[in-house]
Amino acid sequence: MMTNPVRVTIWNEYRSEREREDVRAVYPDGMHAPIAGFLRQNGLDVRVATFDEPEHGLTEAALAETDVLIWWGYTVHEQVADAVVDRIQQRVLQGMGLIALHSAHYSKIFRRLMGTSGSLNWRDVGEKERIWVIAQGHPIARGLGDYFEIPHSEAYCEPFDIPPPDELVFVSWYAGGDVFRSGCCYRRGRGKVFYFSPGDQVYPIYFQKEILQVILNAALWATPNAIKPITSMERLPALEDLEP
Amino acid sequence: MMTNPVRVTIWNEYRSEREREDVRAVYPDGMHAPIAGFLRQNGLDVRVATFDEPEHGLTEAALAETDVLIWWGYTVHEQVADAVVDRIQQRVLQGMGLIALHSAHYSKIFRRLMGTSGSLNWRDVGEKERIWVIAQGHPIARGLGDYFEIPHSEAYCEPFDIPPPDELVFVSWYAGGDVFRSGCCYRRGRGKVFYFSPGDQVYPIYFQKEILQVILNAALWATPNAIKPITSMERLPALEDLEP
Amino acid sequence: MMTNPVRVTIWNEYRSEREREDVRAVYPDGMHAPIAGFLRQNGLDVRVATFDEPEHGLTEAALAETDVLIWWGYTVHEQVADAVVDRIQQRVLQGMGLIALHSAHYSKIFRRLMGTSGSLNWRDVGEKERIWVIAQGHPIARGLGDYFEIPHSEAYCEPFDIPPPDELVFVSWYAGGDVFRSGCCYRRGRGKVFYFSPGDQVYPIYFQKEILQVILNAALWATPNAIKPITSMERLPALEDLEP
Amino acid sequence: MMTNPVRVTIWNEYRSEREREDVRAVYPDGMHAPIAGFLRQNGLDVRVATFDEPEHGLTEAALAETDVLIWWGYTVHEQVADAVVDRIQQRVLQGMGLIALHSAHYSKIFRRLMGTSGSLNWRDVGEKERIWVIAQGHPIARGLGDYFEIPHSEAYCEPFDIPPPDELVFVSWYAGGDVFRSGCCYRRGRGKVFYFSPGDQVYPIYFQKEILQVILNAALWATPNAIKPITSMERLPALEDLEP
């Protein structure tokens, strides 16, 4: 029924790929590149924005043309301008989807929308992660089997300080003995938010086909029907006659 | 099993009762007074804090002795110090209960914990409100029948910009033709949050026995097992042996 | 991305339209007719099944070609064969969507899937119903404003004995003083279930454009990615090496 | 505020302890014995009922004196009388708590209340299970740390065919590579239901202190405010004057 392609903006802080050789070796064109490529192959209209652009590439005009925003950030969380965070929050409340990847659990925008600290425990020894589909039949799990594996991953560990997800799609098992709610859905205002934990920059996770499938599924799931404000503290007359 | 009384702090901005004759006529001792009285009669240990006290009466020491914080504010929302809001949020994430009353939907702390605007539509013509119990058997509905009525109330109207409640306890019917999610439960970190909408300052709502019963029920429901941090971004060793 | 049209089966007990003149006057071709017509106009592949057909028109073969089942029943709930109810339940658990309309709250299949009695209070005096959109931005509310009205409706009243909905989309206001959770989403197995309360047979509700829009939206929302069993109590080998 | 002790009935099919030497060696007095002992130590009023008693020990009179029912069954699921299952369901809808242990995921009463198949995958090789607390601060996790371990356990594996829990309290990690939603809360009617997966009969799991603590916590959580029907399909007069 939708006629226009979904408009996605991938926001990547895009620092470690330029500054660290080990990361550049994995993602020579930036972590956003394989994601952008896959979404484009599937007919989505993709734009990339980065931290070092004016207003971090997320001007009013840019957001006004964004249906779904994908966010990857890590080293510059605290340097993201509050005015831009305000703007993104407003846009989410009006309907824009937000997909927060990996270390975005600690970004200003994710914490702002959750109301919690976003903290978690972690360990980076390249252990195996097995991602279990908990919500069988969920649109974000389309095309997956009961589980898939990431051979080498950074472990993100419970307790994870997030509100109880409206829908819990994935739970990860780690060889080191931990579990993690790795795929979590939320509604905020008219917008949908999906947190997806895989993705440290030193592993080629964003080239893995199941990961790309999940991000595509999530972008389609988070696409709004319409962008508009919910309400604005209006004083309204009664809809029914009231006795004097 | 609990041996010590629940320690409640009622925070009231306490302005309109002192400045407006019509409000003082209804609540000569402040809106907090009937609530404090009822909770004390039921064995709770109640303290009152107000906006004009140093640090709004919510010092580190005061919060450290608070199990459940009840919040009523309206005219001074924007003047509440951010440092105090930060402190309350931290305490909620560590386990303190929070009961947000009426216009607290627009307070900094409620919006902070929800991640949404908290906006709603409204109308103040003293119409009838009938509060329906949606979650039959919920501890916050203890002692109530299927519904109770407030003869004259300010109408708070959907759409109400909050996350979907973890538990929806009450829905209000208004004579003017609106409905409203008037009793909403949330978890944030280790803490529980309850929003309860009745209570404009010109109506004697906080003297009504069902309203007092709900606030008592909510305070008991929101009482924490323990106050402690969830986690603090710790790097943890593996719990299981990992292959080299 | 979907290439084949969604296959909908509308099940209508189809008794009162044939037996009662007042109902026939409103729905001369059956209550299913306006729904089928609207869904077909929107590109869905629609089939109709009725109680008096062999196996109520819901043979294994019929269900095997159904993505979404819409259910309207009232007078024959208890006469629906248990074997057919079993079959529908299995199909829902494997992914088929189910939309339960109006008095279907008391059907065997709805009660089976909910685990509760499905009971409610009611009143049929043709009063006004105003349906509020609670989940702004939800796919089932696509194209609607903040509310819409049904001029004359049967009142369905809380308490409604259903599990807390996974998503609450609509709440109805009634002129007679009641509220009702009129649009409720559930997941059962791989399938999605939507209960939608408007629709007594003596009112022309299924000709109303907002009602038809909701049913279309719900059918699209409930369309499965795939139909397959979740699991079947299998004994599985370990995925990891275990110490002896 | 509660004056009378909580009345718990522990239902145990009580077959394998009598028929199999390996089970009798672990639970010489029945699997119910250590649970009953611990709950009594904590002031609860405990009664035991078993499959071979008339009406399985769950007469109308017995249920009328039960606030919380704990259920362990495995080999006789299909032989439990439907009339008794009906009776339990009615009592739950009226407020009685139900705690379903381990293989009770496949009992008639649990499946009846869930509306799903209750199926799962499994493996019994005595591997390590580590139970993570997902809902920090939840009453059922009172007194626990971030996790606890069961040295030898039967693995219950996702996908687990249950409705999305209203509250997810525990997720288990298994050495063999699986995860499982091991502690799940539901509301059905006025009653609360908790599923807790540990407990195969050949391991001394019900002697473990954390397991007993969870069962005690769950019994207190599931204790009803009051036992009464939600509603019974009553025709009600309007609460407000309606225009003719």
Please describe what this structure looks like:
The structure is a homotetramer of 244-residue chains. In chain A, helix 5 (82-93) packs across helix 6 (108-114). Helices cover 24% and strands 29% of the residues of chain A. Chain A starts with 6 loop residues before the first strand and ends in a 22-residue tail after the last helix. In chain A, helix 5 (82-93) links the parallel strand 3 (68-72) and strand 4 (97-101). Chain A is built from seven helices and nine strands, in the order βαααβαβαβαβββββα. A nine-stranded mixed β-sheet of chain A has the order 2-1-3-4-9-8-7-5-6. Chain A has a domain at 7-118 and 182-222: Rossmann fold. With 244 residues, the first copy, chain A, is of the alpha/beta class. The interface between A and B is large, with 45 and 45 residues.
Helix percent band of chain A? 10-25%
Query: What does the main sheet of chain A amount to?
Result: 9 strands, mixed
Mean pLDDT of chain A: 96
CATH 4th-level superfamily of the domain at 7-118 and 182-222 in chain A: Class I glutamine amidotransferase (GATase) domain
First and last CA, distance of chain A = 48 Å
Number of strands of chain A: 9
Q: Any idea what the CATH architecture of the domain at 7-118 and 182-222 in chain A is? A: 3-Layer(aba) Sandwich
Structural class of chain A: alpha/beta
Q: Can you write the helix and strand succession of chain A as a string?
A: EHHHEHEHEHEEEEEH
- At CATH level 3, the topology of the domain at 7-118 and 182-222 in chain A is Rossmann fold
Tell me the strand percentage band of chain A: 25-35%
Instruction: Give the C-alpha Rg of chain A.
Output: 19 Å
List segments of chain A where confidence is low: pLDDT < 50 over at least 5 consecutive residues: none
